[in-house]
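Quick note —
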Amino acid sequence: MRLNIRALFLIVITLVLISVLSLWSNCSEQNLDIFSKQADAKYEAQVTRDVKPIDCLINGDNNKINCLLSSDTVYVPFSFLKNYFEIYGKLVDNFDHQKEFHWSHSYSKIYHQSGKYDSRGVFTNFQNYKVEERDRVKCVSASEGVPVSTQWNPHGYYYPTQIAQFGLSHYSKNLTLPSPNIQVLENGQLNPKWIIPPSSKLQTVINLPTNSNVVEFFSADEGITLNINEEDDFVLSFDVALSISTSSSIVITMKEYKDSDEVWNLHYTCSHSFISAKGHNIYHGMRCHKDFNWKKLTRNVLVDLQKGLHFLKKTTPKMFRAKYKICDFKVYGIGYLDNLTLSSSNHISQFYSAAHWFVKHQDKESGGWRNPVTRKIYPSIQPLKPGWISAMGQGQAISLLARAFYHSGGNKLYLKSAYSALKPFKVLSEKGGVLAMFMNMYPWYEEYPTFPPIFILNGFMYSLIGLYDLFSLAPNGSEISQESYVLWKQGMTSLKKLLPMFDMGSRSAYDLRHLTLETSPNIARWDYHATHINQLLLLATLDNATVIKSTAKRWISYMNGAHASHN
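Predicted structure written out below.
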């Protein structure tokens, strides 16, 4: 009994000690927390008292900004540093929901090659391009299915370089994106969802050249309507032949249904105008013929709406898919219709639209695609008059046509056009070609064939990639393959010799005008600097020259704030 009392006493004493220690610990932590907060508050108050406004005079009295002084440390506003040193920064929330300031020296992205460049595959990093959505694209022509540029003329014109980029981006997207959703809406069988007014007629007839069923329509003012009501997919493709003797047209109705019930009508009609608009009607013109010539139209109607709204000055460059839906497809007047589909994308059709444009519009004598606008380069250089040819445009068109030859299973029309496009690479720029000579020793293919030449780097490397694509995809041992290989090799030799001249110690130069015009260097913007690096990384998989690899590595370091050492 005595032992049990002793054991009970020890247990009670132990519990009391544990309670006291726990209470003491909690009190200590609370006191420590209070002390810490008091210390932080005291420090912040001290810092606040120490920080004082001070004027910063930048290179003299005429440029003054507001700074802060704390002890012997001067704090300069980032808003000033950003413009003065061309650096970038933004406030972000980290994983702990605390504010962080992210500082960067450049804004562009580098794309490292996963293996040797393949001319059958994606073109550089063009799967990321959205050419038709650029501000400087007026619209996608309903006549040709390619972009219309306003870069140097607000009225709109066909710019070969931009058309090539359009086609190459869609070829690359076709390889990298999932297969599209496709709905067949009409294939000459008369979809039962057509709404045909009493005064109109819709019937299946035989198209004699193809011996296939097509839809013939005759409609008065009301039009014949096919209800769609689609809010996920926006690419419509169809074959159509319209009569120009009547006001025949295709009209696609779209509704802005999230914020309002505004209805927009996209008209595809016989006209020489690229695009026009009035009220809620947007008109995309296509050239028609008297004898019902068939045309294939592949239209991203969301882009067509965007360009129309931009024409009306009612939209920002970005469109939101979730805000719109396609309501109806209507036919007016007299004409024929076939192969009407709705899909999430139709990249390969848009790729071939660009390829067809190059075959159709190539200058047969020179082999070039002529730019129909004046291009001013620099005050001391005579402007390029309409009709000039660009090595970059030639090179990217060759890359496109070589892929069309491969993808089509060997259609020689594309190969013949690409081969003819080599001609300007052998003609001096002052004689209408794109060839310039650096110090009468090294051939260079000029993006802008000026006199004197200025040796633009990115355009030259794009032309080299085009030459490589052609000799890589042309039949082995053919004259085409051999000739493009010679032009490629001599261009690569020039690149390796002249590349160090483009290194400015903290950025690359866009061109060599500081040598040929005796002016200050034309420093490349960060996006052009990144393009230079991406091109060099690609070329390094084809030529293992040290100068290509080391230059690319050094220029990547410039994007992270590195610079050449001082003496």
